[in-house]
Amino acid sequence: MASTSTSLSLFLFLFLHFSSSFSKTSSLFSSSFLLRSQNPPIDSLRHYRTAFFTQILDHFNFNPQSYQSFQQRYLINDTYWGGAAENAPIFVYTGNEGNIEWFAQNTGFILESAPKFRALVVFIEHRFYGKSIPFGGDEDVANRNSSTLGFLSSTQALADYATLITDFKRNLTAIDSPVVVFGGSYGGMLAAWFRLKYPHVAIGAVASSAPILQFENITSPYSFNNIITQDFKSESQNCYRVIKGSWQQIDMVANQPGGPQLLRNSFKFCKPADSQSIQNWLYTAILYTAMTDYPTPSNFLNPLPAYPVKQMCKAIDDPTTGNDTFAKLYGAANVYYNYSGTATCFDLDDDSDPHDLGDWTWQACTELILPTGANTEDSIFPASTWHYADRVHYCKSLFDVEPRRFWITTHFGGFNIERVLKRFGSNIIFFNGLRDPWSGGGVLKNISSSIIAIVAKEGAHHVDLRFSDSNDPKWLKDVRKQELNIIQDWLSQYYLDLAQY
């Protein structure tokens, strides 16, 4: 029997699950950036060559172990580069939690923009992901315990990027070539922070869907799921009501004689599943459909039609299913899990990690504490609260570490961002689409004349960085044009300044 693996969506549930409570599970799960590549309209990887850089293991310590090194992978496309002699720009993608080839395939905006600026394009892989594994490339050794995983952090990653870029420019004799960094999601956070921490290396940053404010006492833990709720409400009140009422119904049926088999048959699972697993499965489809509610078909998480939230609600509102709630939910989940129509059953037990995302657990347990799992009474998910103690308990049990609860906001800032960044920041574009649940932790207002917030009411998760499509709506085309114009202004000012010295 053909089946479709749900590991792409349940992956983090499988190793981040620390409670039998649905709401607690989802609160940690949604603190991740489990992203999948879309199918680009061109074979983008064919245009990149792969290289490796000998990177230092520890940028901040001079003990003997810090002198160890590892091979950090990066991808290069110099097809359109104007060359070092002309100080042509270098566009760098600050890789996030996964295989860098996946990001290069997904992020078409940079490649498509390169001809206009005669830019060289570089995608740098984040340490501990893909093939950029310290300790001789042995994942078992690198992931052994906190003594080795301790070298995985956002600050070390940013130092990697600064070191690689500086050496790369030196080798190209391109010292005066300006660098612009780009990133989406966690990569967008890194791009923004890179500009703030290494302004002498990058003249500007495009930070798309970067929730740099999704931290305690800055953004409400209710924000994330409130946005998902609104996405579905905006399509259909009935759709919202059916999903909202489904959690209790799943629990009730699962505990009845014959209930597990009924649920298996209703949702076409390959094996019997308990209530918790089914709720996680359904939650995943709802979350990621909202996050990737793109205006054109995509294969970012799974193959999806244009406006997948609308299609989910259309399935739920289908009059032919009558009052059969499970038939409606199956039709909705099928939009996310089986839009291609090739699967005959769903496998909830597959825990494969095709994009090398596993080490995100460590980051979520050490510094990237992103409260997202609380639900109001109005939420499409069961009402709940977010508790830091739950995260501590889980991380202690898994790694025997306690998160550095406020380290990110201490190191990078976040409080009073409009007042603070106005004083020392510049040349950052923050894009957010308001249908993206991560937008609640994004920068949604201009901070200064050069720290610009571009907000798209109909936008989803870093939709601006996707490859362009002939069916892209005007608002999306306008967003990209605005970003290109701002980058052009940065470069023009840089070359004016350079000419004076």
Structure description:
The chain has two domains: 4-30 and 231-347, Up-down Bundle (Four Helix Bundle (Hemerythrin (Met), subunit A)); 44-216 and 408-499, Alpha/Beta hydrolase fold, catalytic domain (Rossmann fold), CATH 3.40.50.1820. It has an eight-stranded mixed β-sheet, with helices on both faces. The chain has a two-stranded parallel sheet with strand order 1-8. The chain has 19 helices and ten strands. Mean pLDDT is 89; it is low at 5-42. The longest helix is centred in the C-terminal third of the chain and has 26 residues, at 474-499. The chain has 501 residues and is α/β, with parallel strands linked by helices. Helix 10 runs antiparallel to helix 12 (275-291).
Offer a few descriptive terms:
about 500 residues; alpha/beta; Four Helix Bundle (Hemerythrin (Met), subunit A); Rossmann fold; 2 domains; 8-stranded mixed beta sheet; two-stranded parallel ribbon; 19 helices; protease; Peptidase_S28; serine-type exopeptidase activity; carboxypeptidase; carboxypeptidase activity
Indicate the topology.
Elements: E1 4-5, H1 7-16, H2 22-29, E2 49-56, E3 69-77, E4 90-94, H3 100-106, H4 108-117, E5 120-124, H5 139-142, H6 146-149, H7 154-171, E6 179-184, H8 186-197, E7 204-208, H9 223-235, H10 237-254, H11 259-267, H12 275-291, H13 308-316, H14 325-337, E8 346-347, H15 360-366, H16 388-399, H17 407-412, H18 417-424, E9 428-433, E10 451-456, H19 474-499
Parallel strand pairs: 1-8, 4-5, 4-6, 6-7, 7-9, 9-10
Antiparallel strand pairs: 2-3, 3-5
